[in-house]
Design a protein that fits this description.
It contains 6 helices and 11 strands. It has one domain: DHBP synthase. The chain is globular and about 50 Å long. The chain is α/β, with parallel strands linked by helices. Helix content is 27%, strand content 22%.
């Protein structure tokens, strides 16, 4: 059966409810963020995590990130949050940042490639924040593409690549920057920029 596509502008409630059904049943979906399309699953579904790696042809040494709707939710999954996180978050979250923090044991080592760290995303995207709020728990994921190929910027591109491999695609082509997030490792002193992305370094406040 072909992957279902829901156009966010046409049926927002259906997009939310169908995504919840897919995720709670251990499925995978493709979703819009503020940067590029993501592919994800519920944080505690190891079979779905494995499936993401398989269909993306992703190296298991490359960890997934966790998507949250708020800092308060995030606190249940990470440890030893440094002061600099709050300085950066105040000016730049929600936004196009992935911030790496130490994780708590409740997050599967499978998702983090056996690392004791976790990439945190709080996207500036109403749909994904509303979805995670309604779920009451985070989503694990990464960019929706075949590993080492270009990021996907349209739902039709996602459909052509992942049709029958994922349960659902949420379409919202109009509200993404089209550049992946900037990644900063906050477990190092001083913090280290791992990837320059959508957020320019000059826009990041107080990173010292």
């Amino acid at each position: 059966m072909d992957t279902k596509i829901i156009h966010l502008s046409q049926n927002y409630p259906e997009a939310i409810n169908s995504s919840i059904d897919v995720l709670k049943n251990g499925g995978i979906f493709i979703f819009p963020t503020d940067t590029v399309y993501g592919i994800g699953c519920l944080w505690n579904k190891d079979d779905a995590i494995n499936h993401i790696y398989e269909i993306k042809q992703r190296d298991y040494q490359k960890p997934l990130s966790a998507y949250f709707s708020s800092i308060e939710m995030m606190k249940d999954y990470v440890a030893d949050i440094p002061d600099i996180f709050y300085k950066i978050a105040e000016k730049n979250l929600p936004g196009c940042l992935t911030l790496i923090l130490n994780k708590k044991d409740k997050i599967s080592n499978l998702a983090t490639s056996n690392l004791q760290t976790l990439g945190i995303r709080i996207p500036d995207n109403k749909f994904i924040k509303d979805l995670i709020d309604k779920l009451g728990e985070p989503i694990l994921g990464t960019s929706a593409n075949i590993s080492n190929e270009a990021s996907i910027k349209t739902a039709m591109d996602a459909f052509q690549i992942f049709n029958q491999r994922v349960s659902l695609i949420i379409e919202d082509d109009q509200n993404m920057i089209g550049i992946e997030s900037t990644i900063i490792d906050l477990t190092q002193v001083p913090p280290k920029i791992l990837r320059q992305g959508a957020l320019k370094l000059s826009d990041i406040q107080n990173i010292s």
